[in-house]
Specification:
Layout lengths: L4 H11 L1 H8 L12 H5 L8 H35 L5 H6 L29 H13 L2 E4 L6 E5 L14 E5 L13 E4 H12 L6 E4 L7 E3 L8 E2 L3 E6 L2 H12 L3 H6 L12 H5 L2 E4 L3 H37 L2
Parallel strand pairs: 3-7
Antiparallel strand pairs: 1-9, 2-8, 3-4, 5-6, 5-8
Length: 329
């Protein structure tokens, strides 16, 4: 591209409702939808004055800079967690506690440790290795259900959804969009039909922790400010933290590669994998010996979450300019 501003501008156009509609018209496939590079070449793109292009592009670039800073902070907080708990590489823990008596990986489970579960995945050595390590190096090993950690853990009931047009209901998204800053393909849930359920079970609040509980289990994120009062599907468990401070620390641990196996161990189901709120409550959770370090990890996580909101705000500003000064001018 000859003009550097074209990159951010074209992104904003394709991200807009108009641009995305043009993009979708070229898709094909009866089951899995596709588009090809040639399809992109045929999409008409408006060409406003360079001043407008630059204004839009600058906002997009600043938005992505903030996303990078957010990711860097999350990496920093995770590294601090690993250091504070002296956690070894996860690959090392995965090989621990397997018996070498036979050529294939195998392990033994005491009858007293079955806990009513006969599925082998529940007793994988990785979960015992992580738990044993946390017991040794944490100041205290408690659970997510501890009242010091969470006020409530909500698993919404299943229901038949009634959707309405944009602007007439609450923004609604599912587990597939959990890692997206601005979830794509949002729908809008009827307040008339689902008002009570939305208020009691479904709506999101800043710094709430979300965990996917069926199909793909164990995706974790912390709710950013711009998702306040949005609605997530019943396939996502909500953990309401005891405080904002513990929310940041909780999100870092559960989203780490050490928290993931502890979530996944509770999986059940012969066709569709599931976990429920009782399982989340039982997930082991370490409190650090050095509370100052734990608080710092939490603060860094909350700062990263604030950057996500600011990145969203800047992108929305770019899209507003795109609509007002380019597409519908």
């Amino acid at each position: 591209m000859k003009n550097p501003a074209d990159v951010g501008f074209i992104y904003a156009f394709l991200r807009s409702e108009t641009g995305n509609t043009l993009l979708q018209t070229n898709r094909y496939g009866s089951v899995i939808q596709h588009i090809e590079p040639d399809h992109l070449a045929d999409i008409p793109v408006p060409n406003p004055a360079d001043k407008i292009k630059t204004k839009i592009s600058d906002l997009v670039i600043r938005s992505y800079d903030l996303r990078d800073r957010s990711n860097e902070l999350i990496d920093k907080a995770t590294a601090m967690l690993v250091d504070a708990l002296c956690l070894p590489p996860i690959s090392k823990l995965k090989t621990e506690r397997f018996c070498d008596e036979y050529e294939t990986n195998n392990y033994n489970v005491k009858l007293s440790d079955l806990g009513g579960r006969l599925d082998g995945s529940y007793h994988l050595p990785i979960t015992k290795a992580i738990t044993a390590h946390l017991q040794r190096y944490a100041g205290e090993l408690t659970t997510v259900g501890d009242e010091r950690i969470s006020k409530n853990i909500i698993l919404p009931g299943r229901f038949k959804r009634v959707y309405v047009e944009k602007g007439q209901g609450r923004a609604f998204f599912g587990g597939k969009q959990l890692y997206e800053l601005d979830p794509t393909n949002k729908k809008y849930l009827s307040l008339t039909q689902h008002g009570d359920r939305i208020k009691e079970q479904l709506e999101l609040h800043e710094n709430m922790i979300l965990i996917t509980r069926s199909g793909t289990i164990g995706k974790v994120t912390i709710v950013p400010k711009h998702w306040e009062h949005w609605v997530a599907s019943e396939h996502i468990i909500r953990v309401i933290p005891a405080s904002n401070e513990i929310a940041g620390y909780l999100s870092i641990f559960l989203a780490s590669e050490y928290g993931y196996p502890l979530i996944r161990r509770f999986t059940y189901g012969s066709v569709v994998d599931e976990i429920d709120e009782r399982h989340v409550a039982k997930i082991p959770f370490p409190l650090l010996k050095a509370k100052a370090v734990q608080d710092e990890i939490a603060c860094i996580a909350l700062e990263a979450n604030a950057f996500r909101y600011e990145a969203y705000r800047l992108e929305q500003e770019a899209l507003q300019i795109m609509n007002d000064e380019v597409i519908f001018s």
